[in-house]
């Protein structure tokens, strides 16, 4: 696949990047270089290779997902302009 100047201009427009007309040939060349690298990667035989997320096998750290109240009500309400009975007090907005 080869990128022409019209396609390079369209990609720049879709990416919301302003590219001057004299810079389009260089941009199209860069796109073609990138596509060449992708074609090289497509030639690699990956049959039987398991997908991986890291080069070293490791398990993600997990924590217990327990629901608590946080025990921080006083800290949360400390900077509130008006707090009553453990809640934020706000002016009435609906009549």
TrEMBL record:
UniProt entry tagged with the keyword Protein biosynthesis: yes
One Pfam short name: GatC
Catalytic activity from the UniProt record: L-aspartyl-tRNA(Asn) + L-glutamine + ATP + H2O = L-asparaginyl-tRNA(Asn) + L-glutamate + ADP + phosphate + 2 H(+); L-glutamyl-tRNA(Gln) + L-glutamine + ATP + H2O = L-glutaminyl-tRNA(Gln) + L-glutamate + ADP + phosphate + H(+)
SUPFAM superfamilies named among the record's database cross-references: Glu-tRNAGln amidotransferase C subunit
Single GO term (MF): glutaminyl-tRNA synthase (glutamine-hydrolyzing) activity
Top-level lineage group: Bacteria
EC number from the UniProt entry: 6.3.5.-
GO biological process: glutaminyl-tRNAGln biosynthesis via transamidation; regulation of translational fidelity; translation
Subunit structure: Heterotrimer of A, B and C subunits.
Name of protein: Aspartyl/glutamyl-tRNA(Asn/Gln) amidotransferase subunit C
């Amino acid at each position: 696949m080869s990128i022409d100047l019209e396609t390079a201009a369209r990609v720049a427009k879709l990416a919301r990047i302003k590219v001057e007309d004299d810079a389009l040939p260089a941009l199209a060349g860069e796109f073609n270089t990138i596509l060449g690298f992708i074609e090289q990667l497509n030639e690699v035989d990956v049959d039987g290779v398991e997908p991986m997320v890291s080069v070293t096998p490791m398990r993600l750290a997990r924590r217990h997902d327990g629901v608590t109240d946080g025990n921080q009500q006083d800290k949360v309400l400390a900077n509130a302009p008006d707090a009553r009975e453990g809640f934020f007090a706000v002016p009435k907005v609906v009549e």
